[in-house]
Design brief:
This protein is about 45% helix and about 15% strand. The longest helix is centred in the middle third of the chain and has 18 residues.
């Protein structure tokens, strides 16, 4: 799967009307939350969408959980295997039933969690609940099917490595991280993917350890009968009885000096330049995630002086931005530039560095900070036009922060960020000893 999370988390749109801005509760829809005795959290969100419902299952397992040497890529692999079937619904039957109702049905994997989602008619909701509960409880696949899908995952890697982004991510993470599992991508290390067909027994244990009710949150958004939904949920998910494994997460040691990494890209593309600093984990009880969300937009967002200078006026860069989003453990805040030519690299690097140092010196535009806060907070809410929009945003933030109301609480934290907090954060974390610089130079030198 392509990593769409940064785009989904950083949706920007015009501000909401003043009446909506005045709400104390920044999320406009009620969450009805119940935790079953087995630990499964079920969240229902009534939404005016006659005849339509979105169904999101968030499993808090991602590439972060892959701590065993030689066993990376399995969180993503299970995104594939979860569509294989069960004894009750053999391979292909679930797809046929889902398609017969007209559901859109898919999944995606991230560093920290995996999401399964379906969107379609309420008339098929009872059938969908039974199908989803069955595969989460009773997934079955034979070793030949496992081997076939493992080869498909290897093919997915080969497809992705033809683009610069995968190799850039691999090199950046492998340079910035020495111990933590964030040092590999969601796809996993290439050697581990090649060896995956021989790991059938391990795959079964991975499923048993992480696909558990106490590690899963379900969001149901749209037009449905709440009592009937909860009755079906309790009937089909109630017998699910596994418990999530305990994880001994390796701690990343502090970085003590600037690191660099370079890629010579064999084919024609534009040069790339990335600055990345280690920053704190996402949390709803501290301001770090909210500060970084605002800070990324402040430094390189489309309203930033840097964007105006480098992209619009001097045209040294095709694009500047950041794909920052919060992580469960300390990760990276990055600034990314796609250069129009290799000759522009020094000037772009100098401009990015200057902007960071100016902020750390105390120079901050309070009015622009406030505008960015409004755009992040209300712009995202303006995009909640359909049950599927609501479901995906709730799922993404719940996957990161581990609580159903994470989206609302994060947006509240964003609204509380003060300009001086950006300055203090830059002084503490955006320093050279904490920095990794990644450069990519294409074979043509970036000349198009």
């Amino acid at each position: 799967m392509q990593r769409l999370l940064p785009l989904l988390l950083l949706l920007l749109a015009p501000a909401l009307p003043a009446a909506a801005q005045a709400r104390d509760d920044v999320f406009p829809y009620a969450l009805k939350t119940e935790r079953l005795p087995n630990g499964l959290t079920v969240v229902r969100v009534p939404f005016r969408s006659p005849g339509l419902v979105a169904y999101y299952s968030v499993v808090r397992v991602g590439s972060r959980n892959e701590v065993e040497p030689g066993k990376t890529g399995f969180a993503h692999f299970f995104e594939h295997m979860m569509f294989k079937g069960t004894k009750k619904h053999p391979e292909g039957e679930r797809d046929r039933i889902v398609a017969s109702y007209g559901f859109d049905d898919n999944a995606f994997t991230t560093d920290d969690f995996t999401v399964y989602h379906a969107y379609g008619p309420t008339a098929g909701l009872d059938a969908l609940i039974e199908l989803e509960a069955d595969r989460f409880r009773n997934l079955e696949y034979a070793e030949p099917s496992f081997r076939t899908e493992a080869l498909a995952v290897l093919g997915e890697y080969h497809k992705n490595e033809s683009r610069p982004e995968l190799k850039m991510e691999e090199r950046l993470l492998g340079t910035a991280f020495q111990k933590h599992t964030y040092r590999h991508t969601t796809l996993g290390f290439y050697e581990d993917i090649k060896a995956m067909p021989e790991a059938y027994a391990y795959s079964r244990s991975f499923f048993e350890r992480w696909y558990t009710p106490d590690n899963t949150i379900i969001f149901i958004v749209g037009d449905f009968d709440d009592a009937a939904v909860m009755k079906a949920i309790q009937e089909h998910y109630g017998p699910w009885a596994r418990k999530a494994a305990q994880l001994n997460m390796p701690t990343e040691p502090p970085q003590k000096e600037k690191r660099t990494a370079h890629i010579d890209w064999a084919s024609s593309t534009l040069p790339r330049h990335v600055l990345a600093w280690h920053t704190p984990a996402g949390s709803l009880t501290t301001p770090s995630a909210a500060i970084q969300s605002v800070l990324a937009a402040y430094l390189v967002g489309p309203t930033s002086p840097l964007y105006k200078e480098l992209v619009l006026e001097k045209q040294l860069a095709e694009f500047i931005g950041s794909d920052f989003y919060p992580h469960r453990d300390p990760h990276l805040l990055n600034l990314i530039a796609t250069l129009k030519a290799e000759d522009n690299r020094a000037a772009v690097d100098a401009a990015l560095t200057r902007a960071v140092r100016e902020l750390a010196s105390g120079k901050v535009d309070a009015a622009r900070v406030k505008a960015i806060q409004s755009n992040i907070r209300y712009g995202l809410l303006m995009n909640l036009e359909a049950p599927d929009d609501v479901g995906v945003q709730l799922a993404l933030y719940a996957g990161i922060f581990g609580t159903p109301d994470a989206l609302s609480r994060h947006l509240q934290n964003v609204s509380r960020v003060q300009p001086e907090q950006l300055v203090a954060f830059a002084r503490s974390y955006l320093v050279d000893t904490n920095l990794t610089v990644l450069t990519l130079t294409p074979a043509n030198g970036g000349k198009q």
